[in-house]
Write a structure and sequence with these properties.
The protein is of the alpha/beta class and 358 residues long. It has twelve helices and 18 strands. Helix content is 35%, strand content 20%. The strands form five sheets. Strands 2-1-13-12-14 form a five-stranded mixed beta sheet, with helices on both faces. Strands 4-3-5-6-9 form a five-stranded parallel beta sheet, sandwiched between helices. It has a four-stranded mixed beta sheet with strand order 15-16-17-18.
């Protein structure tokens, strides 16, 4: 029996809904579609490479990359082996990445490109992990060894997805977070993330195959919660072409639900039009969310879209919304769901309309 884990759900979708759409991504001006069958094949291919390098149950793997399909398939690959994902913000500086890698005790690091790989050079030689990349195509050395390719294209004769060690994912944390350095690493289980997905799906009233626009790396709890929802509902995940193409991508896709971090929102704040109807906006949590909303360049566009009924929920991570945020959400009658930094519901009673208790 397949364990109820995130990669277990991915494998089930590959079997039950093989031809339905798992994701869309625009590259070189063309939208590219990936089915659930193809997604599982790609995750299985990456998992096989990691297993061959010794990644297995109980290990922790650093994952750094911008929102794109390979980031999500890499996370599923790691979790399918019983290892835990330590996802960090690709915008973090070298010191932050190095200290996080040491604090989490990672033995392997998966990065998108050279910009993130060179940051790993700050990791002490005694703690240096194996480094893989899905974008670095030329020879490169970091952490005392070569950067290994992380392949996603399955073998041509591979007819069915085979996520190696899939059953090993059960009983091991899905993610390990470092959101509070003083408290040390915190483990987030598959069960907790899938419970969050169930709550979030009900609050957002989303139908299967709803389009989810993901413009946030897995370093954030909101993105981890939505990763679980994508395989639990399931949803079709759509990835941005680039921050400067955000508006055009949203207009083309018209997603039911959207999630974006500050770098994407800042790029688009002055350009979003009423014809775009994203449904889910990131708010940064207690203490900082009110200030974020009051920034002149961001507050007006956000309020306009919420006020037009173009948002059906606000997802708040890191703490209860502060008073200015709750007042704005109450005025606009927008429901909010609080989750903690790991992507788990902080308190079920706080999932209410306009910040009021349910």
């Amino acid at each position: 029996m397949t364990p109820d884990t995130l990669p277990g759900r991915l494998g089930a979708l590959a079997s039950d809904r093989p031809d339905e759409t798992a994701c869309w991504v625009k590259r070189r001006g063309l939208w590219q579609r990936t089915s659930w069958h193809q997604a599982a094949l790609q995750a299985a291919r990456a998992a096989a490479a990691l297993a061959q390098a010794g990644v297995g149950p109980g290990q922790r793997v650093l994952l750094v990359g911008d929102p794109e399909p390979e980031l999500h398939w890499a996370a599923h690959a790691v979790m399918s082996l019983g290892a835990s994902v330590v996802a960090l913000d690709p915008a973090a500086d070298a010191g932050r990445l190095a200290s996080a890698a040491v604090a989490a005790g990672v033995g392997c690091a998966l990065v998108r490109d050279e910009e993130q790989a060179v940051k790993l050079a700050r990791i002490p030689a005694s703690e240096a992990p194996l480094v893989f990349s899905w974008r670095i195509g030329s020879a490169m050395e970091v952490c005392g060894g070569p950067v290994r390719p992380l392949p996603f294209s399955p073998a041509q004769d591979q007819a069915a997805p085979c996520l190696p060690g899939l059953a090993q994912g059960s009983g091991h944390p899905a993610f390990v977070t470092l959101d509070c350095p003083a408290a040390g690493p915190r483990e987030v289980s598959h069960e907790e993330l899938l419970a969050t997905a169930e709550t979030l799906g009900a609050r957002l009233d989303l139908r299967p195959a709803a389009r989810y626009f993901c413009a946030m790396p897995l370093a954030f709890g909101e993105a981890r919660a939505m990763l679980a929802l994508a395989v639990a509902l399931p949803m079709t995940t759509c990835f941005p072409e680039s921050p400067d193409q955000l508006e055009a991508n949203l207009v083309e896709l018209q997603p039911e639900v959207s999630l974006m971090d500050g770098s994407y929102w800042n790029e688009a704040a002055g350009h979003l039009r009423q014809r775009v109807r994203p449904g889910l906006w990131r708010m940064v949590g207690a203490g900082s969310s009110g200030g974020w909303l009051r920034e002149r360049t961001l507050h007006r566009p956000l309020r306009r879209h919420l006020g037009l009924g173009r948002a059906n929920a606000a997802l708040v991570a890191g703490g209860r919304p502060d008073e200015p945020t709750r007042a704005l959400l109450a005025t606009l009658k927008v429901p909010w769901l609080e989750i903690d930094a790991g992507g788990r519901p902080a308190t079920a009673a706080r999932a209410g309309v306009g910040g009021s208790a349910a």
